[in-house]
Design goal:
The protein has about 290 residues and is mainly α. Helices cover about 85% and strands about 0% of the residues. It contains 13 helices and no strands. The longest helix is centred in the N-terminal third of the chain and has 28 residues, at about 55-85. The protein is globular and about 50 Å long. The model is unreliable at about 145-150 (pLDDT under 50).
Length: about 290
């Protein structure tokens, strides 16, 4: 039971990032920079408490990984601006899960048994169905003035966001394996550098930037509890629950940001959420075995 409670923290912390940051406000570059400042503060506190062993390789890879992460998060913030949090986040999470799982299975041979392929392929199909329904638009809503030009911009933002996130995930999960408590500080430094690059180093510590640092603290707290969940409840529970943050994003976007949904769209969202839950649980089982 304790492990499940731990696993709920990254689910809510990471799933809330989109709508909390959008509630705070700011442009995507400001949101990214503010978030990375909070992550750097959190990582510095962790380093002071844990004092992990660190080396040049860990610093170099950590900084590169952090810059890739900032690319992913910046693209996600842009996509949220164009498509809304309740649409952009499920699309982003679903695409990352599908592509990340395929790369792990095909390139790195993570699926070694028949049951892995059966459960894995079933999970991927469910995830594709899930993010299709969660982002599906009611044609009647379009006819009364819904502007889909921004939707196309949102897909372009999600493309480079997914590229950044997938590269970051492959780097840390498949190529290099570091202690999460040791690499969090170098990674946070890389995140800040990446965010400043998007701002062309025209950095300004405006009020909205500092407020978005709260989101970075949420990200760090999610990381710590992800480790606790994996050690107490097992990887299947920790992974599955952490990936369900997209559900929190959908709910938060609708109820806290006032993103409107027609009755049809609400039914589609519920179908999408159900598919997400089952798909993520199946992937968690495959990952743990």
């Amino acid at each position: 039971m304790q492990g499940i409670l731990y696993a709920l923290v990254p689910m809510f912390a990471w799933g809330s990032i989109g709508f909390v940051s959008n509630k705070i406000g700011g442009k995507p570059n400001q949101q990214t920079f503010g978030m990375t400042l909070g992550a750097l503060l959190f990582a510095s506190i962790v380093w002071l408490v844990v004092r992990p062993e660190m080396n040049v390789l860990l610093w170099g890879v950590g900084i590169i990984g952090g810059m890739l992460w900032s690319m992913g998060q910046n693209g996600q913030f842009h996509a949220m601006q164009y498509m809304g949090v309740s649409v952009a986040n499920p699309l982003s999470s679903g695409t990352q899960l599908v592509l990340g799982s395929l790369i792990g299975a095909i390139v790195f041979g993570e699926w070694t048994k028949s049951i892995h392929f059966i459960l894995g392929i079933t999970a991927l199909v469910l995830l594709v169905i899930g993010f299709y329904f969660s982002s599906r638009q009611d044609s009647e809503k379009d006819q009364v003035g819904q502007n889909l030009t921004n939707f196309s911009k949102g897909f372009r933002a999600l493309f480079y966001s997914t590229l950044g996130y997938i590269s970051y995930t492959v780097l840390f999960n498949n190529i290099m394996h570091f202690d999460a408590l040791a690499v969090i500080l170098p990674m946070a430094v890389g995140m800040c550098l990446g965010a400043m690059m998007f701002m062309r180093f025209n950095v300004s510590l405006e009020k909205v930037v500092l407020k978005n640092a709260l989101v970075g603290m949420m990200w760090g707290i999610g990381n710590i509890f992800m480790l606790l969940a994996a050690s107490t409840a097992g990887l299947a529970i920790a992974f599955s629950f952490s990936q369900l943050g997209a559900i929190i994003s959908i709910i938060g976007g609708i109820f806290f940001l006032g993103e409107t949904k027609t009755k049809k769209e609400m039914r589609w969202v519920l179908i999408g959420i159900l598919c997400f839950v089952i798909g993520a649980i199946l992937l968690g089982i495959v990952k743990a075995n």
